[in-house]
Amino acid sequence: MVSSESLAELVDRARAGERTAEETVCRRFSPVVRAFARRRLRGTEAVDEFTQDVLLLTIEALRGGRVQEPERLGGFVLGICRTLAFDRARQRERRRTLWEMYGAALEAVSVQAVHTETYEVSHLEDCMSRLSGRARELIRLGYIESRGHDEVARALNISEGNARVLRHRTLASLRECMSKRMSWEAA
Amino acid sequence: MSEPRKPFEALEEYQSGGMPDADAAGFEEELFAAAAAGTAEEASFVDRVALIGRYLEPRGGLDIGSTRARVDQLLGSGLRVQLIEPAPAPSVQMPPLDPDAEIVITHVAVDVRGYDSVDVVVETPDGTELKTFRDVGWDPDDGTMYAVCEGHLARLAAQVPRVVSRIIGTRAGQKHQIAVFESVNSS
Predict the structure, then answer these.
(1) B48 touches chain A (CB under 8 A)
(2) Quick one: how far is CA A171 from the chain centroid?
(3) Which of A28, A41, A112, A185 to mutate to test the interface with B (most CBs of B within 10 A)?
(4) d(CA A11, CA A135)
(5) ipTM field
(6) Average pLDDT over residues A17-42
(7) What is the dihedral of CA A18, A101, A52, A175, to 10 degrees?
């Protein structure tokens, strides 16, 4: 658990424009912002765009010293998400400008950055091949293509309730596999 | 007293929209507070799966048994692809892997058409199971399988000197051994 003091330090460093602090903020929040977006949006592009917008605005706020209570950074970012969810259309032009100014900090959480993570990529590929075809399809539709839950259930020809159970079981199984060494290494 | 949540269950209910808005508001407060503390472990795991999956998908890394058309697409993609096409035999000497191959494709020239599903069980010569590739896909035209693999993972697997692969088909609930062969990896 990270203490509120270290969170304060993180906010201070980000305020000072320290890139690593901004990347840490991106790494911490991009998963939950995506979760927030997946609940409301359909399609990978829409989820990505929303996530980038929130992170860009967060960095801008940090740089501008607008995060007054570092221990409430989570609530601050959530506030951005909620506000943005209501007002997305007029953000498009602003996004382009922000991207040019602060976009580099987001590279750490991009698909392109995965290229350097060869071991983790191999590990996931190895673990995915152990899943059933249906579980793999669920991961592909639900997380890679960010399809809606109802759409995933229809594609797999199962009820939404069963799809929900299959989702969390598949994730748990995948996480367990990835917590171990790859079979080839064990041999 | 209610049962404790299973791993990923609450996150999945939230993301899929199954969680009522009233509950979701509190859930996302906790989620974002956890992200601030660097402890949003489940959301981070899901996000890594999605990111790496998006990296692997266009490279054939999630196919788990590809078609010839997909192989041709990868060969023409500009990626460094090594295609290995060993002649069917009880014992197959595998060629050395190109050290700079980004993707390695091995053609398993066994016709598996006519089965409901096919698994490939890989073992060491003493019968110790290394892993099972589940629900492997095949080419619809000739029934053979193309195993597409990230270069890093292929080189890791090739460090195991000898493996025995058993191709198991399931038809009407009954399992049949379709073929078995040994692969001898080049050192």
Answers:
(1) yes
(2) 15
(3) A28
(4) 40
(5) 0.83
(6) 93
(7) -40
**In whole angstroms, what is the distance from residue A185 CA to residue A171 CA?**
23
Nearest residue on chain B to A126, alpha-carbon basis: B153
Structure tokens at B49: 């799966």
The model's confidence at residue B5, banded by pLDDT at 50, 70 and 90, is: confident
Q: Is A119 on the interface with B (CB under 8 A)?
A: yes
The first and second tokens of residue B123, run together, are 């073992």
Q: How many CB pairs under 8 A join A and B?
A: 203
For chain A, say whether B61 makes contact (Cβ under 8 Å): yes
**Whether the Cβ atoms of residue A111 and residue B52 lie closer than 8 Å to each other:** no
For A46-105, the pLDDT digits (tens) are: 899 999 999 999 999 999 999 999 999 999 999 999 999 877 655 656 777 888 889 889
| Burial class (CB within 10 angstroms; exposed 0-12, middle 13-18, buried 19+) of A181 | exposed
B16 residue type, one letter: S
Strands of the sheet containing B145-150, edge to edge, are: B81-84, B103-108, B145-150
Question: Which pTM was predicted?
Answer: 0.81
